[in-house]
Structure formats: C-alpha cells, structure tokens
C-alpha cells in the first residue's frame, strides 16, 4: 500500500486487518507533511504528538480485538477555524493569536476521532473564511498541487490542497458561499457541502451564522461517504443543528442513479464562465443520459442577496476589531468586512425576505427534479494574484465571481457535492451536483456512477 495515494477505506481496512499499524501510518504522514508541505503551504500546525498517541490507542484497540471504528487509523486535518484542543483557533487571522488555546475539540473533529480517525494538523485558509483564494497575507498563499503557480481556491484552500497533494486522505472545511466546493474543484478532489444543519458547527469559528456549513474533502466518493456518515447527526451544542435521523450514504453508494430525476441547470448557470466548464457539464449529462434543462428564476438576485447578508453578518462578528484595529486584518478581507459593516439594516432585511422567496422557488424545482447538475466554478484555478478576467462581457473582478455557481445553493442551505473532472495536461474542473434538503444519498449515487464510469476522478498524488 502506497500511503500517499491510499484512501481512507483502504487505510482503515488495512489497520483493522492488522496489515499495518496506525502508528506506522501516523509516522509516515507526519514525515510526508514535513517533506512536501513547504511547496504547497497547506498546514499552519502539525499535531505530531497527538497523532502518535491517538494512533497507538487505535492499535491497542485492534490488538485487544475491539472495534476501532470505521475510520481506524485514517489521518485527517482540519481548516484552522475548527477548535483543536491545545491549539489556538486562528481562523486565518493574526488577531486570534492572542486568544487562549482551545480547551476542547470541535464537534466535527470529535466525530471523526470517535470513528477512529487520527488528527495530524490544522490547515491554511482565507482570513475569517472571507475569500475564495487562500492567498492569506499572514500565513502565505496555499498553492495548487497540480500547478504551484495557481491558487488552491478558498476559503478552505488548505483542506482541498492537502487532500489533492496526498498529505492526508481526508480533511474538514467550511462552506459559506462555496468555500468547500470552489477549492475542491480547483484542486481536483471530491467534496460535500451537506444540508444546512446536518453536520454540527459547534466549536468552529463562524463567518456568517445563517450560511455556514461543515463538510469533508476526499479523493473518492467512497471515502467522502465514509467521512460524511461519521459526521452527520444532531448536536444540541449547535443551535441550527437539525434533529434528523442519520441516513448513511455508504451502504447505498453503488445503487446508481436509476430512478432519480436528473436535470442540467440552464439560464445563469450557462453564462459568465469559460466554455470548458460548460463542456464538462455536458459530458456529465451525456454520460448520465440527461437531456432535461431547468431554469431557476432570479439567480443573479440570489447571488447579490447572499453576498449582502454574508458580508453584513461577518462584519458584525468582528465589529469591535474593525473599529479599533483594522490594520491588523488581512488587506484581502479588511475592505470587504468594512463594506459589510455599512450595509443598511433595511437592505439586510429585504435580502432575507428575498431569501425566503428564492427558497420557495427552489422547492418547486426539486419537486420535479432529484439532482441538478451545474458547473462548480466559472473557470479552472486562476494564477495566484490574478485580479480581473473577461468571461465574455467585459473584465470583472475575479475573486467574488469564483462563487457564481455555488452561492445560490448555500443561500438556501441545499446539499451540494462537487466531482472532479480530470484534464490530462491541464488543470482539473469541477461539476456540482445539487439536491433537495437531506437528499445527500442521491448526490452520492450519481457521483459514484460517474466515478465508476471513469468520467470523474481525483488524480493520484
């Protein structure tokens, strides 16, 4: 077993069968991070001592004939906005360095640990999760493992890049307007933004409370489903956690899309992007035999309202620091937070009213459709530092536009899974699969069929 290319299912199976020890995997993972991470800059902290202690505990359970969990010995890392006991939760900032270390792991970290996974570190991100590039002024840019001159995406860029580079098989990120899906598409890995409230956010530093989701990254649908099954579930410590019975996706993974009603999103989802992203969607649709197209009304208004609400909620969280120490913010995020602080209350309220209207329109769509297919991003990963680009209607600011296809669905909390489209000799693209609330299983069934047919895949590190 080549550890840098091994997936979570393979590693856990080998540990449970005693073909390799969790300790050996942890030692190799820490060494690999030390060797390879300087080139991509994913990690802001490596928890080597904890990883070895947790791995030895897993090995002791295996040796005694006990059940170490479905993720036995699988290394994982988390975006540095998740609390990790003993580490200060940076959330991509320097201001947070002044805070005490976390006394307890975040709920999602505990969930993976209960399943037997071994935490190896914390990962780089855009400051306070406000961005799509992970070009962090404080901690440096995370680079795309496919081409180091290109961005990894954000705000969970360290998470996507760590998985794509083979540093860990699983990682955790957060998604407000696309911060899981955008970097996954740029780096060429699988990732899931679950239904809003499906995975606990307790112990995670929030950006915009009415938008934020927690979800996993992986290099296969099977690994992604295994991680999601460990994560999902009600948590009283998260006020938006929904008391919905868990619906394991892994057992239904190979059921395929038969019986599911599939459609391609038209209208705004066929505009403002490079031709290659639409061609990728068409390839997926053709492989699945999908000819139906659906137009969602007022998507441009949904994107605008989402930006207004998230900027306002984010600024409110940091209002005191913006007033007294604005110079300590990352310049890439400071002006956006300051703009959010001046959003009129009437505009915020009106955007929330529109949010209800838009949610109702999407409910109508998903009465007729089970899975909607869209691009994930408007282009492949741009070069680091690229500021503007012309998508056919004149130059626009690139960074906010990277969430053009992801933002409308997190706006109303729908589950979305991005699958990687490999392009030999070129950077990968992502195709986004979207479903009704709590229908993650449908997304996995479609993604697995595409993976089994060889159309989607994460390149071997």
N-to-C CA distance: 14 Å
Assembly state here? single chain
CATH H level, superfamily name: Amidase signature (AS) domain
Widest sheet, order of strands: 1-3-2-8-10-9-16-17-13-11-12
The helix tally amounts to 15
Give the helix proportion (percent range). Answer: 25-40%
Please give the largest β-sheet. Answer: 11 strands, mixed
The counted number of beta strands is: 17
Q: Can you tell me the CATH topology?
A: Amidase signature (AS) enzymes
Tell me what portion of residues adopts beta-strand conformation: 15-25%
Which structural class do you get from the secondary structure elements? alpha+beta
CATH class: Alpha Beta
How many domains in all?
1
What is Rg? 20 Å
Structural description of this entry:
This protein is of the alpha+beta class and 461 residues long. It has one domain (8-305, 332-452): Amidase signature (AS) enzymes (Alpha-Beta Complex). The chain contains 15 helices and 17 strands. The strands form four sheets. It has an eleven-stranded mixed β-sheet with strand order 1-3-2-8-10-9-16-17-13-11-12. A hairpin with a 2-residue loop joins strand 6 and strand 7. Helix 2 packs antiparallel against helix 3 and helix 9 (299-317) crosses helix 12 (345-368). It is globular. The mean pLDDT is 97.
